[in-house]
Amino acid sequence: MLLAAVAVVGVTVWLAAGEIDRTVIAGSQRLADSAMRTVQREMALWVKDYAFWGATVQNLVVAPDPDWAAGNVGQYVFDTFNTTATLAVGADGQVIYFASDAKRPAPPEGFADDVVAALQPLIEGARAAPYDEPVGVAGFVRLGPVALLAAAAAITPERPTGAALRPHARPVLLFVRELDATMLGVLAERFGLPGFRWALGDRAPSPHACPVRDIRGEVVGFVDWTPDTPGDAMAARITWPLAALGLMLTGLGALALRRVVKANHDLHEQARALHDANEQLSENTARVRSALQRAEHATRAKSSFLAGISHELRTPLTAIIGFSQILKLQHRPGKGRSREQEYAEIIHDSSQHLLNLVNDILDLSKIESGGYELEESWVDVGREARVVRSLLAHDAERRGVEILVDATGDLPALYADAKSVRQIVINLLSNGLKFTQRGGWVRLAVRVDAEGGMVIEVVDNGAGISPEDQKHIWEAFTRARNPGLAKAEGSGLGLHLVRVLAQLHGAQAGLESELGQGTRVWVAFGPERVRAIVA
């Protein structure tokens, strides 16, 4: 009787453990299926983003540019998305571009043609997408002993018009990724599938392995893993207590069974919730990555445009300034200036202002793109202050504003980029002149602070800046909004460029101002950049 009771309890626990293991394995099968569908969906989104782009049409189809391709759909894509190769197929079905990951072994000869031949159904599916909105399609294919995941999308302009909207065979962009250990390792960690691995052939390596079908619906292999078996672990933990306690567990058998069933139900619900959350996370990740790629392309395009247009403007402006300077210098002593000479002075001053603005924009675009390089050396800031005063003396005289310079004494040298230091001093002093009324003054001072650092400051008794405008005055293309400043020149780049150049030197820039009383602006360099000048 006792043995029968123990046997009943043992069988009950064994059955419950088996049911738990089956539930866990079924959940892991759903996760494995979700993993394979997720990588297909992500690849389809990636290739669609690059195919539906005017730059791709121009640089792969219209006027092939190998440098652009390498930097956008070549090694850059391999490093970003861990793909193996990129192909572009022309409207006639011929390969017009092929690149493989230089960090992997070179593919065998004829690899590109073999891939195109194997992916014909996928290519035709991509070409069948709407002409104004291509859709990425993805699927698996087997080439000899290698299984590949491929995604395709028709290469289409972002805003197709005219002939681009009429039925025609479009070129197709292909991303290819080998199902190797690296890819499967990432999926194993991402979806919680221990030992996630790939098995070629048409026979399942284990009862729970999931088949993977190619784009024609044929099985090309299986994904297998080592599922958790919490039921076996539970049975191992309670087998010996069951054998020892015997009669005691007979009475508790029913209760244990109920708990096991409840645990089974909870585990099933958790697996389903995890599966749903994984699906949502995968979609969100793909969308965020796509948005980030578009933002990076937009930033590179903006910086390239600013640099290009600035260079194009500088050459004619330099010529205008030179010729207008010649016309100004034709004034003869003792004779009044002619109207043409007055016009020449206006042209010269306006062109000089525009050239300064172009130079500021060019410097700003270099800094934003990481192309601005500091050439640091020991700079005599006192001398720079006096040079800038001489440069702006004519402007100050024209405005009726007095420039005061306090940069005498034994000032130490500053370890910095001389061009940047002069730009900082010019921008600060120019701002003071622009925003100070006739009869006012602007003072430029260079001093050493209590910590041994160097401070460059400009103080004026001009219109001042309201507290509200001070919150945004350091931003690019921002100027104070009050009646005293409404008639002042300026693009709003001066102070922004001062702060950016200061930050490149590890310095701090600050401002104090009171509306109607004047403004104090300073840049403070750390003591590690200061040393005494040796005669």
From TrEMBL:
Cellular component, GO, one term: plasma membrane
Coiled coil: 264-298
Protein name: histidine kinase
GO MF terms held by the record: histidine phosphotransfer kinase activity; phosphorelay sensor kinase activity
Domain Histidine kinase as annotated: residue spans: 308-529
Signal peptide limits: none
Origin organism lineage: Bacteria, Pseudomonadati, Pseudomonadota, Alphaproteobacteria, Rhodospirillales
Keyword annotations: Coiled coil, Kinase, Phosphoprotein, Transferase, Two-component regulatory system
InterPro entries: CHASE4 (IPR007892), HATPase_C_sf (IPR036890), HATPase_dom (IPR003594), His_kinase_dom (IPR005467), HisK_dim/P_dom (IPR003661), HisK_dim/P_sf (IPR036097), Sig_transdc_His_kin-like_C (IPR004358)
First-level EC class: transferase
Catalytic activity: ATP + protein L-histidine = ADP + protein N-phospho-L-histidine
Entries under PROSITE patterns matching the protein: HIS_KIN (PS50109)
E.C. number(s) listed in UniProt: 2.7.13.3
